[in-house]
């Protein structure tokens, strides 16, 4: 399972293993490949710190506060820049809170394809998850804690520049809440 992903990113940090209650609460709502991933690797930090695989119940409220979640999408990942990855029911959406957009980045329910082909592809990461500022930010600001992301200050939507020297380490949920309160929900 997810062989190419772990071949490219062999180091990861498990923060927490899912409880049976968490697994049961998402059974049938998320692809089995994702809950199998949780069972095997837990919630934690992957891709040299760029991706956090999260317990949806910990991040759903922040997501719903900041995104017009008409389709009951479920959060399962957060990037180093506070962008959320969600399961729509038949696709994966990236919600780019930093600049107020969203995009379906993978159709279908083959999560192994997403991890092994998409996330292991530098072109996909650059084009769909805008990772080009990650390594310079990490070098400048240091490794992120599990509950942190790099946030642009001032916010891009308030005229801030999307440049590395405008990034700060911020708490993910609080940063997303500030974006929602300042800019409104992404629709």
Structural topology:
Layout: H1 3-8, E1 13-16, H2 20-26, H3 32-41, E2 43-46, E3 51-53, H4 56-66, E4 74-79, E5 84-87, E6 91-96, E7 101-107, H5 111-118, H6 122-129, H7 134-141, E8 148-152, E9 167-171, H8 172-183
Antiparallel strand pairs: 1-2, 2-3, 3-4, 4-5, 5-6, 6-7, 8-9
Structural class call reads alpha+beta
- The DSSP helix count reads 8
Q: What name is given to the CATH topology? A: SMI1/KNR4-like
User: Which architecture name does CATH use?
Assistant: 3-Layer(aba) Sandwich
Low-confidence stretches are none
Class in CATH?
A: Alpha Beta
Walk me through what this model shows.
The chain is an alpha+beta fold and 187 residues long. The protein has a single domain, classed as SMI1/KNR4-like, CATH 3.40.1580. It has eight helices and nine strands. The protein has helices spanning 3-8, 20-26, 32-41, 56-66, 111-118, 122-129, 134-141, 172-183; strands spanning 13-16, 43-46, 51-53, 74-79, 84-87, 91-96, 101-107, 148-152, 167-171. Strands 1-2-3-4-5-6-7 form a seven-stranded antiparallel beta sheet. The protein has a two-stranded antiparallel ribbon with strand order 8-9. The model has no long low-confidence stretch (mean pLDDT 94).
Short structural summary:
With 187 residues, the protein is α+β, with helices and mostly antiparallel strands. 37% of the residues lie in helices and 24% in strands. It has a single domain (3-183), classed as SMI1/KNR4-like, CATH 3.40.1580.
């Amino acid at each position: 399972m997810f062989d190419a992903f772990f071949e490219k990113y062999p180091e990861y940090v498990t923060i927490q293993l899912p409880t049976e209650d968490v697994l049961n609460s998402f059974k049938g709502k998320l692809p089995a490949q994702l809950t199998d991933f949780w069972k095997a690797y837990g919630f934690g930090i992957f891709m040299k710190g760029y991706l956090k695989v999260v317990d949806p119940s910990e991040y759903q409220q922040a997501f719903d506060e900041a995104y017009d979640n008409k389709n009951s999408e479920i959060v399962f990942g957060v990037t180093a820049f506070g962008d959320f990855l969600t399961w729509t029911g038949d696709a994966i959406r990236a919600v780019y809170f930093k600049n107020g957009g969203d995009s379906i980045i993978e159709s279908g329910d083959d999560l192994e394809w997403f991890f092994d082909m998409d996330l292991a592809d530098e072109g996909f990461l650059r084009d769909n998850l805008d990772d080009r500022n990650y390594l310079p930010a990490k070098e400048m600001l240091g490794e992120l804690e599990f509950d942190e992301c790099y946030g642009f200050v001032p916010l891009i939507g308030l005229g801030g520049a999307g440049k590395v020297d405008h990034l700060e380490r911020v708490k993910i949920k609080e940063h997303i809440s500030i974006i929602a309160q300042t800019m409104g929900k992404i629709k």
